[in-house]
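Appendix B. Extra example for self-study. Work through it before the problem class; the solution is given directly after the inputs so you can check yourself.
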Amino acid sequence: MSDGPLIVQSDKTLLLEVDHPLARDCRAAIAPFAELERSPEHVHTYRVTPLALWNARAAGHDAEQVVDALVRYSRYPVPHALLVDVADTMDRFGRLTLANDPLHGLVLTTSDRAVLEEVIRSKRVAPMLGARIDQDTVVVHPSERGRLKQALLKVGWPAEDLAGYVDGQAHPIELDQAGWHLRDYQQEAVDGFWAGGSGVVVLPCGAGKTLVGAAAMAEAKATTLILVTNTVAGRQWKRELIARTSLTEEEIGEYSGERKEIRPVTIATYQVITTRRKGEYRHLDLFDAQDWGLIVYDEVHLLPAPIFRLTADLQSRRRLGLTATLVREDGREDDVFSLIGPKRYDAPWRDIEAQGYIAPAECIEVRVALDDEERMTYAVAEPEERYRIAATASSKLPVIRRVLERHPDEQKLVIGAYLDQLDELGRALDAPVIQGSTTNREREKLFDAFRAGEVKTLVVSKVANFSIDLPEAAVAVQVSGTFGSRQEEAQRLGRVLRPKADGRQAHFYTVVSRDTLDAEYAAHRQRFLAEQGYAYTIVDAADLAGPGEVGGPDWVDEPAD
Amino acid sequence: MSSPAPATLASWLRTRSDEQLGALLAARPDVARPAPSDVVALASRLAVPVSVDRALDELDAATLQVLDVVLLADTDGVDAADLPAALPEVPDEVLAAAVDQLTTRALLWGDDVLHAPEPVRRAVRYPAGLGRRAVELRLTLPADLPVALAELPAEEREVLERLAGDRPVGHLPDTDGPGSSPARRLLQRGLLARIDALNVELPREIGLLLRGPRPFGPPRVRPEPPGLERDPAVVDRQAAGAAMEAIGRVGELLTLLEEEPAGLLRSGGVGVRDQKRLARTLKVPEPEAAWLLELAFAAGLLDVGGPHRDEWLPTRTFDLWREQELPDRWATLAAGWLAAVRLPSLAGQRDVAGKAVNALSPDLVRHTAPAIRRSALSALAEYPPGCGVAPDDLVALLRWRTPRRADRLAPVPDLLAEAARLGIVVGGVLSAGGRGLLATGEDGAATGMRGLLPDPVDHVLAQPDLSLVAPGPLVAELADTLAVVADVESSGGATVFRVSEGSVRRALDAGWSATDLHDFFTRASRTPVPQALDYLVDDVARQHGRLRVGAIESYVRSDDHGLLSQVLNDRRTAAAELRRLAPGVLVSGLGADEVLTVLREAGYAPAGESPGGTVLTRPPARPRAAGRRPGGSAPQAPRPLTGDELAATVREVRAGDAALAARRGEAVRQVPGVTTAGTLELLTRAVREGVPVWLGYVDAQGSGSQRVVQPVSLAGGFLQGYDERRGESRTFAVHRITSVALVEDDDLAPSS
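Solution. Structure tokens for the complete assembly:
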């Protein structure tokens, strides 16, 4: 019996023992076809899904490599049935290909006639197909390219899209690498994307996804449409592009609620595109306004459903998806696969962290005991009110203050979900508050002051969840949230993970009311963070105030009794 | 040889050597016990139809084809030297081996000239797949048969060609009208014979004509399927993978049943709801759950138990089993499966009534199952290690080997799939464990798997996300404990457990203390216990048991705490068994009326209290019996007879009448239950000559009837025939026939 680092489970999860001498090799071998699901300290969990296997096929791996990797690194014998199943699943990808026929235009061809017969007879697929040219080829209307791929994936025969892309209108874009250079993994990500044509690059928050986008644009040298989650994120893209590429301010347009500029490079928000008036999308023309050569989707995991529908019509343009995670809470990973493209690059967080590009973070849960009055209010509250009462308990305030006092010299963020609480905190901590109603100009001003170090503490609502860049925030204190969503957690953690100038450790505090729903949600959060491999410590509020500990930014030791 | 050739089977047997007779008895052991008194007795035992059938069933297709040559010969007896001419494409050594097999088993006799005994002729219904002679089928074929056939339209010709293949009997299509289908038109032309209401038979002459130069069909030599060849080491490793999976799954299944047994259905078996529940919890498809249940049952690890014997529970054997080494556990499963008389693959399929068969139901019993399994696997075992054949090819090979049992081979593909799930077979190749199992049973199986399956581990890895990873199969004791304190999240080579609030609470409910849990995690985990886990245990423990629940019958309450203390300390109220639960409340295990009585007798003035807290002033309602509801259901009237039932009754009466009236030859009467030679002789004659017979018959319900029947066949104690008056084709048990007589020709002409 071999003593490999990998254990293959019946449900097709793979357990990788990370301390094993072969763990690194094994990870490299299984990464192409297995999604990293959890990476806690000792044993990492990967999952082999049909999508992951097809991603691997799209990236040029074959079933033999997959089976070989499983068999070679597995500690225990792998059941034959599982290997057969893996091979069968992989074999389903590429039986059908979308290609350009010089005579008939877009066609669906097959290497296996039976499969073509099956999909032609499928109710879901049949309406999208045109005339049958010969036994192996069917005409596809170009406008159905995206929907056909979606439908084929649903019936289990994903098509390989080799129909190519239009070049779009050329526009000179160069990376301006003065004083910096593209990191290795960023370069690998761009190369992987460009070789594949379209697809998704998975990088953790703070790992420089914007630069991957910029490098992809420099590769395409064509007009580009960038879709982002909100205006602030859009501005940040614009800043980065001006700083890192040959593009000038005049060449970059902003298409948002406030401004409607269409320039060679246009940055649009999801919101403006999905705005409807009288049931109609008002800004669809944007997609036809230019002969776009590249479309970049920022934060693909948040892509709203209407954009999927629009994207289905854009299959002849190169598409780049950027995200920190392929996990979508709505489970539409398969739409990302079929419409934007397969995963082209993926790097585990911890690896990038180990390379020093994102700050190591320590997660600390501070438990606050509610006073009797609060406990009584909590106990008699309506179920839907309970979380709010627990999360906004005023007993938290002194604890938050103590936490902030521990880091007097750092840039600190206090993040919450309830406006009343944020206002109260702002007053009590004498810190400015940024929330949904804060104007963009006000926001920019405060962010600038924060960046410059003039403001040490900012209180922010969930507007801060997405894409704003606060490079020197070394401490985040989370006081309330939206029910422990994994997505939110990844974003908030991203706030403090940007690399620090001096490589200091980042601190991520969560202040939680003990024995309440708040603590229950904190358990979800704790699990998520532990699964991501972060050190997670639980501290009682009373211990936090221990003598000799206050004000020590490098507090990491056991709390004093 | 100087002496003249023996004239009968008995006299030929006399000429056989002792070794040859020994070989005969070994090959047909059913005739050997009890020992036959002499050669004549032996010969008559060899003629018993059941024995002949059994002997024929064991022959392969090539041997049967040689037998066909002898059976089809015009003369009684075929010179052995003429065989190669009859089957020119069959190699000589195959012929010689076949003749040797047949004579050894006394299915043919004679040294140079081979004779077929009469029972063998009768047992082979369609030699070489040819029908009976036209005469026997009472057909008059056209004088120039080749011309008649050449004139046939393509459709009809196609039907004939098909019947000239392996089976001369075919089903009539369900269309009405005499000329509506090719087969019916052929019937009209007299080229096919009708043998009953549904089936037709092709006369031998036409079959032979259509076959042309190959009267015995294509040579039935052993098929040589393309062999599969794989690295034996790889095969064994993959088999071990399947084995681990099976062992793990069965273990999990039985642990689940231990916690919540599955109910026994009245019809036997496990209910669909229980099966769904198990499948859901095990995260497997439902058919897989059925298979695991069957496997556990076959291995004796699961059976009916419980206080009312109405639950499926793990057996005591399971407790021993889970302590064993993995190879031994596997051997128990594999051996149990091999010997099981049930076909798990039938579970979930619909029976004739259209009802799905439940797992573990008695309907899955097939007594032939072990023999089929063994013969299929033995065929694979003939290949060297690492070699095998694909399932379809194996079925073809088995069909050649025992063509007369081909109908039994239907479950073989499913059986092979099961063997693959167990790790006995991997992709058509027998694993070392499988070989061992076939050769020496359980011990061999365990030996074959030894070294391939890991040793159980006695530790887990605790992780900060509150999961515990057991990096291999667990020792039984640790598995038991973990089942209490954690939930299984994924299983396979390893097991991932998750500790949650719920699981910790379950452990506390089961009597663990927080300290016990901390100790257990520290002891069981090889990695440091994460802080979060300790916190979780303490959090749950802190909340646990803050609410207490107990049972009482009544309470005494008062705002006057002094009065309650007085009552509690009053010796006269001791009979009320009161104790103080909280200030202001006393409780008792006795009923409220008893406590009231005791308190009143002690001189207090208590008042009863309703659940709402109001004082009960009225005496409780007087006791009354629950009366019967007026207007019970009316007795049901007998169901009126339907038109069909009336008609059938009339037809029965008329048929009996007519049979009585039919002039007949001298009847052979018999005592019911004793089949006399006379009856059989008369019936045989009737079948051969195709004359109708008059029957006195007692059916299974004991009612007698008399009928005129056109006999079709007589075999195995059953007479098949067509009852013209009743217009039905049916089967009569010979032992129920009370009298029989031939009907004279002229009786049939005047019909009513």
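Self-check: The longest strand of chain B covers residues 704-715. If your reasoning did not lead you there, revisit section 3.
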